[in-house]
């Protein structure tokens, strides 16, 4: 089919049709597209069938492993992506020049930061600015700020994306924590880390700097439990399942945990407040950024100095040695 013929045949397609093709092309499956669009699998299937009927051509190759756009499908998806980019650019331009200190701010962050660092600060911010609402995207996935999945992102990372702008607003430090029931009874006895039961890092977060440190520092340890969630590891540690490496700001708030070691050397992680350049002029987003930039360092310092500790710290493996730059992780 020639390009002119394809253009004539697809002239009746509207944005909803193009968006459907783009979602299936990106996801590579009907289920993935349905999840992105908030629709049922059957609805996406029916809509794609209708689009192909109006276009007079198949746009996808079906297989057991998924749906793959053919040449015609790629052309339609590319056109849809250009339309989406133009629409999002216009939306960011409007939002970025919004001078109102009211409305919704979409804030993306991780489970640990949302549960242990942000609540008190956001409470004070929202009390001071009654016209603002915050929608929190709480996950460890990388949100696309270009596609307006969030206005602002608070992430622990060693290297922010080049497409985003922002500032480092703090530094996360880590230490080893354990429940009192796992430690020697006499307060003057120094615990031996290798002899403790441990909670380790599941392979899905093995890329993080602190998980890599754990593998180097205690290679002979076989954890009795692994998890891919730091909040879950924190609660498991407080329950007495094993010793665990945790960010100090969160572990200090758990009364069932005692800090067993000094902060781990060479394993701090930068905490970054990131946004797309186009939303810089948005008054409410700028206000929250300024608020968090001032409040986060104070809160991190307060939490790191708090919490219970053992009377005598255990030696920390690899202490004093130069370590590699840590990978992202919160």
Count of individual helical segments: 11
Mean pLDDT: 83
- Reading the helices and strands in chain order gives HHHHEEHEHHEEEEEHEHEHEEHE
Structural class: alpha/beta
Walk me through the structure:
The termini are far apart. The strands form 4 sheets. The protein has a 5-stranded mixed β-sheet. It has a 4-stranded mixed β-sheet with strand order 10-7-11-13. Strands 1-2 form a two-stranded antiparallel sheet. The protein has helices at 3-9, 15-27, 30-37, 41-55, 71-96, 111-116, 118-128, 209-217, 230-238, 248-251, 283-304; strands at 60-63, 66-69, 103-109, 132-138, 152-156, 165-172, 174-178, 199-201, 225-227, 244-247, 258-259, 269-275, 308-309. With 330 residues, it is of the alpha/beta class. The longest helix has 26 residues, at 71-96. Mean pLDDT is 83; it is low at 6-10 and 322-326. The chain is built from 11 helices and 13 strands. Helices cover 39% and strands 18% of the residues.
